[in-house]
Write a structure and sequence with these properties.
alpha/beta, Rossmann fold, Alpha-Beta Plaits, 2 domains, 6-stranded mixed β-sheet, elongated
Length: 304
């Protein structure tokens, strides 16, 4: 295992940021950490990286106990904090040379050149960090996290505040560099975990309330109701539609359009049969699939 937490708790004053959580992240796995603000995501990452000490419990990285092997663990971890602290008065290469020096790397110049190429900073390399867009600053942050070739990569909100084109670029970058590494990343963006992650952990009030693959997480919802959007060519009144016994709830969008809620059974064949029997023409008939966002809100919303 690359990362292990055993009954880890962290308290700030009277607030329990982490409440006895235990996790295992295996080598080569990409794990997405989801949770509302204040759920404990950043606190957990800071404990894994050794920036915070837990009140109780044990954190391990590659079998080494955090706190007992601090320097060795930091050599094995690449960390991008949420606020991405950078020296904005330094040039990109200058900053990366500084970070490489901290890790006492051999062949600093060649390693910096390699990181600039890997993270797509070649066209911007002659600029000071302060002159870069947020997307390129994130690239610099990822480059410094990777420069010592760590086996574990910890990314706290790596795409926060980026525009859509920057999101795509940074996601692809993370995907490219994570091929041979264990990656843990926190995010509020549901598409991110679906696009990048092998497994999802959902935190709420310092506890892990769900952990599984994205597809299995989707199946965990306690509410298995489905929503069907149907548009008829003719006006259909509610009384007529209510004759379909499988329908739980009806919401009228217009005289011809309805949002229908039912159980687990697919209502589309039933609605189609209803239309045939009543000589109605269906223009649109769509089933809304469960999304990770819906599941996330359902899992955490009941507890808030």
């Amino acid at each position: 295992m690359s990362v292990e937490l055993e009954s880890v708790s962290k308290i700030y004053g009277t607030q329990k940021a982490l409440d006895g959580i235990s996790i295992t992240v295996n080598s080569g796995e990409i794990v997405g950490i989801l949770g509302p603000n204040g759920a404990g995501k950043s606190t957990m990452m800071k404990i894994i990286t050794g920036f915070l000490h837990p009140e109780s419990g044990i954190a391990k990285v590659n079998g080494l106990v955090v706190g007992e092997h601090s320097l060795e663990i930091r050599r094995q971890i690449g960390y991008l904090p949420e606020n991405n602290p950078l020296y904005t008065d330094l040039y990109i290469a200058e900053y990366l040379e500084y970070v490489a020096g901290i890790y006492r790397l051999d062949s600093v110049q060649s390693r910096v050149k390699e990181m600039i190429g890997l993270t797509g900073l070649e066209l911007e390399k002659h600029k000071k960090i302060g002159a870069l867009s947020k997307g390129y600053r994130q690239r610099v942050g990822i480059a410094q996290a990777l420069i010592h070739d760590p086996s574990v990569l910890i990314l706290d909100e790596p795409t926060s505040g980026l525009d859509p084109s920057q999101l795509v670029e940074i996601r692809q970058l993370i995907r490219d560099v994570s091929a041979k590494k264990t990656v843990m990343l926190s995010t509020h963006i549901m598409q991110e975990v679906e696009a990048l992650c092998d497994r999802i952990m959902i935190l709420d009030h310092g506890k892990i309330v769900a952990t599984d693959s994205p597809s299995n997480i989707k199946s965990m919802a306690t509410s298995h109701s489905q929503k069907i959007f149907v548009e008829f060519a003719e006006t259909v009144n509610q009384e007529k539609l209510s004759e379909i016994k499988e329908i739980k709830e009806l919401k009228q969008i217009s005289e011809t359009t309805w949002l229908i809620t039912g159980g687990e059974k697919d209502l589309r064949p039933v609605i189609f049969k209803f239309a045939v029997v009543n000589k109605l023409t269906i223009l649109t008939l769509n089933k809304q699939e469960s999304t990770l966002e819906n599941i996330f809100l359902e899992i955490t919303g009941a507890k808030r």
